[in-house]
């Protein structure tokens, strides 16, 4: 039997086993589905939709090209990507997964990136947003506002380290294609304006069509994201019920013993490999030391879970951007973030706590708990209404496009 047939049999057997598990554990699967749906319905959809729509408009009207010209001298030497990558990086950090991959794919479709540059860019623009790190994880799970500083520093420095590492990705291929990117120019405002104007003139769609396309594309992506969130929520629950997680944790415990990590962190880590929210929550409930919890949580946030990886794989599949470099970068960021969290524990968290525990959050974190709780409260209250309204708008626009297609 060749490898291809073996792969087919494995996939078929896995899907059949998953189907059988869902049928035999209907109640647990339903509860996990509802939990995943609530997360998407109340928070993910309403929080990501504005970023996606605005990003589409900024790309269409040439604003991203304007930003790219100005950031070229920074992004090209550091990460070997065009200046437009700075926009994807900033939006990825502000809005969270999988915005970085979505924007990278969009820039590739606009031919503002080569395939190699897009693979480099996607590798380090995938990150959690600050609200999730400070609010959901630090305050919500650990009830420790100051820990958010350490987790955020480890996470975003890990992003930078991944970008600096992946700058060497595809270098040989670029040399063979005779691509020279060693000359950099001082950014010019006038040149940036000219390029923005040229990009806008290339856009032949009327304003209404641009807005409609932006809404349709953004909602389609978020529907896909919601499907993956629900699927992996159910999958994670079934693994726990079938004791697969327990079996894997037994083998992982030997590695944890070698690194002097608490064995109780094995199951949270495995859960986090599939879905970051559940993994981070379980990590905060263990009896391990806070430093070890921070290290494991940093790895989970850096790797971002198979759920997010699957979302990104689906987005990148619409282009010629390969998924393997992205997945390798996720493993790298998990490792980098865990190491950085360990190295920064003493200078960033421990020493400041020892000097004055109340002094850490003075400039930012003192109000974190208040506004984060208020934000999530408003999101839970109004999020479903925003989601429902957007879905109704999506249906109207989609039906309208279908009718126009029939008339043609």
From TrEMBL:
It comes from the Bacteria. The chain crosses the membrane at residues 6-23, 43-71, 83-101, 121-141, 147-166, 210-235, 247-274, 294-315, 327-345, 382-399. The keyword Transmembrane applies. The keyword Manganese does not apply. Residues 43-140, 222-318 form the Nucleoside transporter/FeoB GTPase Gate domain. InterPro entries: Gate_dom (IPR011642), Spore_IM_YlbJ (IPR014226). Keywords: Membrane, Transmembrane, Transmembrane helix. This is Sporulation integral membrane protein YlbJ. It comes from Metabacillus arenae. The gene is ylbJ.
């Amino acid at each position: 039997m060749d490898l291809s047939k073996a792969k087919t049999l494995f996939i078929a057997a896995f899907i059949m086993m998953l189907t059988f598990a869902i049928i035999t554990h209907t109640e647990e699967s339903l509860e996990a589905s509802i939990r995943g749906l609530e997360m998407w319905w109340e928070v993910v959809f309403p929080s990501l939709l504005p970023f996606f729509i605005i990003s589409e408009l900024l790309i269409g009207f040439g604003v991203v090209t304007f930003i790219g010209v100005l950031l070229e001298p920074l992004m090209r030497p550091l990460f070997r990507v065009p200046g437009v990558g700075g926009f994807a990086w900033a939006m990825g950090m502000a809005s969270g997964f999988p915005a970085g991959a979505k924007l990278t794919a969009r820039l590739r479709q606009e031919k503002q990136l080569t395939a190699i540059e897009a693979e480099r860019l996607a590798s380090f623009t995938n990150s959690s947003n600050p609200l999730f790190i400070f609010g959901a994880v630090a305050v919500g799970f650990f009830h420790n506002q100051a820990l958010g500083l350490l987790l955020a520093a480890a996470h975003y420095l890990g992003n930078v380290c991944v970008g600096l590492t992946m700058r060497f990705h595809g270098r040989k291929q670029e040399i063979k294609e005779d691509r020279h990117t060693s000359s950099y120019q001082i950014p010019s405002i006038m040149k940036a304006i000219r390029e923005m104007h040229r990009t806008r003139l290339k856009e032949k769609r009327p304003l209404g069509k641009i807005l409609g396309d932006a809404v349709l594309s953004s909602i389609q992506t978020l529907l896909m994201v919601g499907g993956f969130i629900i699927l992996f929520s159910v999958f994670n629950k079934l693994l726990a019920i079938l004791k697969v997680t327990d079996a894997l944790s037994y083998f992982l415990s030997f590695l944890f013993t070698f690194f002097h990590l608490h064995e109780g962190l094995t199951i949270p880590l495995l859960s986090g490999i599939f879905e970051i929210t559940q993994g981070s929550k379980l990590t905060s409930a263990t009896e391990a030391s806070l430093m070890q919890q921070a290290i494991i949580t940093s790895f989970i946030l850096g790797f971002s879970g198979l759920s997010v990886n699957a979302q990104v794989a689906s987005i990148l599949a619409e282009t010629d951007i390969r998924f393997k470099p992205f997945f390798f970068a996720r493993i790298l960021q998990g490792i980098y973030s865990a190491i950085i969290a360990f190295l920064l524990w003493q200078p960033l968290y421990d020493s400041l706590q020892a000097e004055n525990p109340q002094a850490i959050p003075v400039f930012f974190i003192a109000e974190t708990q208040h506004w984060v709780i208020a934000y999530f409260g408003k999101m839970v209250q109004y999020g479903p209404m925003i989601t429902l309204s957007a879905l109704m708008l999506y249906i109207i626009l989609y039906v309208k496009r279908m009718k126009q297609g029939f008339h043609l």
